[in-house]
Amino acid sequence: MASASYRPVLVIGDRNYSSWSLRPWLALRHAGIAFDERPVKLRQGEATRAAIAVQSPTGRIPVLKLADAIIPETIAIIEWANEAAPDARLLPEDGLARALCRAASAEMHAGFAALRNQCPMDIAQRLPAPPMTADLARDIARVEVLWRDCRHRFGQDGPYLFGHFTMADAMFAPVATRFASYGIELGQTARDYVATIYRDHHFQAWQAAALVERDAAQTAP
Ligand SMILES: N[C@@H](CCC(=O)N[C@@H](CS)C(=O)NCC(=O)O)C(=O)O
After folding, report:
1. Does any domain span residue 220?
2. Are residues 101 and 80 in the same domain?
3. Domain that holds residue 183
4. pLDDT in tens, 141-160
């Protein structure tokens, strides 16, 4: 449970590029958990490694710093948020929905290598579509099937994968931005779901800050 006197600190990377940071940030916001942010600039070689090393035992971010512990790994941070704010139902209550929400989140965490490598997240940009390799086409097709299954099976009570916002939406939000950034052609359900993410108020707050960050980086001497 969250300590009443200590505000958790989420250490995050650049808003434009750090898909891993977006995920727990969105989940914490949806859960209504108050937290502070500590940004680390990525892509600066040794300076980035050194900055992360003082924040994270794994050498990776995000991490959530609590009064008495540091939680690394996106899924663990979101699980913590689910325990700290159970009313937000970041994991669905129904046993089957919860299992499939975890499965979708784990699949995203471990897979989709071609999509990740060929379409890195860059929220502020619209970019040319990458060459449609067989691996990329397979990843996109799998995402579409997964989203369609979740929406059809569990999506009656809202526009998210399991109706209301859950861990699976946090995990797949960066995929929605990749599809938008690279103009990937999608079926109707996936197009609607991408629009759902772009309509999400918390995502919009992250996106607005990502644009400010991009503009600041472009005008930096
Ligand atoms: N498995 C980790 C992955 C986190 C990750 O790969 N983070 C990247 C930034 S998005 C990182 O820390 N990279 C180290 C670096 O850029 O030096 C998680 O679930 O949080």
Report:
1. no
2. no
3. 95-203
4. 999 999 999 999 999 999 99
> pTM of the predicted model, to two decimals?
0.96
Considering the domain architecture, whether residues 117 and 74 belong to the same structural domain is answered as no
Centre of ligand 1 from the C-alpha of residue 154, in Å: 30
The alpha carbon of 111 and the centre of ligand 1 are apart by a number of angstroms equal to: 15
pLDDT per position as a tens digit, 113-127: 999 999 999 999 999
Task: Quote the CA–CA distance of 79 and 91 in Å, as a whole number.
Answer: 8
Hey, how many other C-beta atoms are within 10 angstroms of the C-beta on 9? 16
Ligand 1: does its nearest atom lie under 6 Å from the Cβ of 62? yes
Helix (H, G, I), strand (E, B) or coil at 59: coil
Residue 22 lies in a domain: yes
Asked whether 206 and 114 are in contact (CB, 8 A), the reply is: no
| CA-nearest residue, atom 2 of ligand 1 | 73
Of 135, 118, 133, 134, give the one whose Cα is nearest residue 179. 118
Let me know if residue 1 belongs to a domain. no
Q: Please report whether residue 215 resides in a domain.
A: no
Residue 173: CB atoms within 10 Å: 26
Which residue's CA is minimally distant from atom 5 of ligand 1?
60
20 within ligand 1 shell (Cβ under 6 A): yes
Look up the CATH number of the domain holding residue 128: 1.20.1050.10
Residue 19 alpha carbon, nearest atom of ligand 1:
10
Domain count, the chain: 2
Task: Report CA(13)–ligand 1 centroid distance (Å).
Answer: 9
- CA distance linking residue 61 with residue 71, whole number of Å: 10
